[in-house]
């Protein structure tokens, strides 16, 4: 592999991008988040409505997914967002169950764990892997602080802040940093990762705990923080959708900015950069 | 970058990745259907319970709400009219012939009429009811603290759980039952309730007497309670998981 460093123009340099701990924690996190999201949608499906405040005012729902017969007698899936009705047949409200026949359900069978309507099993998955997620996340933050990973790789520099708009414009045009710049995360990457780790993840944990009646007894500020248990449930749902959106953009960026290189860097740790000008021999960080 | 790796190896690894993804989803389905899964994944409830017990004081009270917070429509959950001739006979007679039997590991087993229970010190609280499905309703409950009733029957030292046997038959004909431990039984907000929002408990909400807990989910709060029994283990009852819904795979510890 070293041979190619010298022979191919433009020069390609292999660097060690992700430490072993980051790679292991990343994939555990990926599996756990997938299970949490899909089992969470299973739990949501047990009562596919959202409310604001302490309790459920059934006459005023922020979101509701349901099946309803139209004038001609055909059943359609409806998603009602703050009074606005959308026909979502086949996806939300009325879709094929795990046995292939149409049933009334919030999210479709392919999005839930398990696929069939099974609240008890969804809760078993969710409340088991919640512990895995929290322990994995705590390990990431702890190792990130002790190893300097968070400060060195994720804390935005002054230059990152200054070039934020420029970086954003480049991302929109799908132009990604090359050469020396590709050695480091850019400002948008840093802010997205920090936002997920230090804002969205804590909000998910706290809003999840605010739904626990025992935690509410011990820590009533959890309810004040989210304006009540049903608001906490709504925020938990919106947080999950934020994580899903992050995941989709993350996957899209991984694909367009070099699927194989990115994937390999998160599996073996090695990442290729194109050196714009002569660089020191060998791979730094090794 | 492609010259750094054999294309066949790249295809193999990508294929393995895609395969792993679909295997994973299929695997989760298979795991869900494995009879051992509830006890494996469900073991997390004991960690949750231990941590919540360490974090939340024994006597910490569930938040109480104002009268204006009471739900205009309180959704009844579970059975709303028990399909049980004996219960229906009792209901037609306004439960005058109903008796609550309290026995098991107690020194002084007793039976209480509804009037006797209503004559005990009454507690009224406006608390939130959280259904396992996800919705919450706030209501005003009146009843006697369970610990008051337990003190009358003198629990023996080996008693660890309180079982509640109910009048409502569920799917398959087995009757609803539940269990809580003595720690939850001794809590100030654990009531045997006979009134909701100031009126005699309607049949849909568990007449004549139902359990109310401040810190657990709705399915723990047995309705149509006929018989309370103190035991050292809930294993001998039903399928051995401590309650009707627990036997269907729901966690015994419903604090979350």
Question: Could you write a compact summary of the structure shown?
Answer:
With 286 residues, chain A is α+β, with helices and mostly antiparallel strands.
Q: Your description of this structure?
A:
The complex is a heterodimer of chains A (286) and B (256). Chain A has 286 residues and is an alpha+beta fold. Chain A is built from eleven helices and eight strands. Chain A has two domains: 205 residues, Transmembrane di-heme cytochromes, Chain C (Fumarate Reductase Cytochrome B subunit, Up-down Bundle); 58 residues, no CATH class. In chain A, the strands form three sheets. Chain A has a four-stranded antiparallel β-sheet. In chain A, strands 1-8 form a two-stranded antiparallel ribbon. Chain A has a two-stranded antiparallel ribbon with strand order 6-7. Chain A is globular and about 65 Å long. The C terminus of chain A is likely disordered. Chain B contains eight helices and ten strands. In chain B, strands 2-1-10-5-6 form a five-stranded mixed β-sheet. In chain B, strands 3, 4, 7, 8 and 9 form a five-stranded antiparallel β-sheet that branches. The mean pLDDT of chain B is 94. Chains A and B meet through helix 2, helix 3, helix 8, helix 10 and helix 11 of A and helix 1, helix 2, helix 3 and strand 4 of B.
Task: Outline the fold blueprint.
The complex is a heterodimer of chains A (286) and B (256).
Chain A (H helix, E strand, L loop, with lengths): L1 H6 L4 E5 L3 H26 L3 E2 L12 E7 L5 E7 L2 E4 L5 E4 L5 E4 L13 H29 L1 H6 L3 H5 L1 H9 L14 H24 L2 H6 L2 H6 L2 H28 L2 H9 L2 E5 L12
Antiparallel strand pairs in A: 1-8, 2-3, 3-4, 4-5, 6-7
Helix pairs in contact in A: 2-3, 7-10
Chain B lengths: L6 H27 L3 H5 L2 H12 L29 H8 L6 E6 L5 E4 H5 L3 E9 L5 E10 H8 L7 E9 L5 E7 H4 L5 E6 L2 E2 L9 E3 L12 E7 L12 H4 L9
Parallel strand pairs in B: 1-10
Antiparallel strand pairs in B: 1-2, 3-4, 4-7, 5-6, 5-10, 7-8, 7-9
